[in-house]
Amino acid sequence: xxxxxxxxxxxxxxxxxxxxxxxxxxxxxxxxxxxxxxxxxxxxxxxxxxxxxxxxxxxxxxxxxxxxxxxxxxxxxxxxxxxxxxxxxxxxxxxxxxxxxxxxxxxxxxxxxxxxxxxxxxxxxxxxxxxxxxxxxxxxxxxxxxxxxxxxxxxxxxxxxxxxxxxxxxxxxxxxxxxxxxxxxxxxxxxxxxxxxxxxxxxxxxxxxxxxxxxxxxxxxxxxxxxxxxxxxxxxxxxxxxxxxxxxxxxxxxxxxxxxxxxxxxxxxxxxxxxxxxxxxxxxxxxxxxxxxxxxxxxxxxxxxxxxxxxxxxxxxxxxxxxxxxxxxxxxxxxxxxxxxxxxxxxxxxxxxxxxxxxxxxxxxxxxxx
Length: 370
Prior knowledge:
The protein is of the alpha+beta class.
């Protein structure tokens, strides 16, 4: 399929997309979408958090100390069995016994070494409720509201019993002494809150993540930036365009495969420039979205290294790309100026610069696969 045809079909999909509420969404359900599904709850089976369990979760509570893992596991099984919630455990070790590097230098000119006042190490187990594609998901908000007032049987502590739940005694005391009806109505999970999946990297939560339409547009690109293995690349050329909204024109484009808009022309220029660079042995990539097309060069895991003065020393390879494809110094009528470099008649940017390699939106992918 040609790039032009891919653009056209994608625009048609965008313009005709209709979201309809499902019948299940109409039902009254205090725990949102989760309780409408069958949730596995096998005694003795471990339900540990994984990357695939949604980008957003609810942290129901945490346990720490001897027996913490058993209590967390018991709560996970009850949330799954009784409340039909996809609950998981997540384990993390906190070590405050090792020295850390402080601010400033000692009398020998070395970084100061400091120790925590409370010198101890412990394991903490969080109970998380997952499978939410967005922080604004109605199912997440309704589940969070309901989980704060629920009363799990496994967390009903008798007079002579104790719990490894973090700050359980203090929170119970505050609820009993409070005159606020809302605080009194809270159960042992009353401090639950929303958090992102700690197993997913930061870049998957950045607003630069793209959606399925942009992914479809780029699927026809031979040297797609989506195949770039690095975290950063250098943008060397930018071509802007416009978007066709007239449905008759969109239908004609889909039928003929021809698209004469500035957006299509921008995409063609980016593809031609990327190919010309590749023919010369340069690691070039192309990327197209709804507004522009760009060409980038190289893949890098970081922009550079942090210096002692707080600044970043740019990677020499990145500097070389910027210098190689940046503008040339010219003199017109005795005055100095800058002229963009070109390749096969296609201009590069006046100011090449490093950018993040665009990542697929985990939230969008998760929502499509639910």
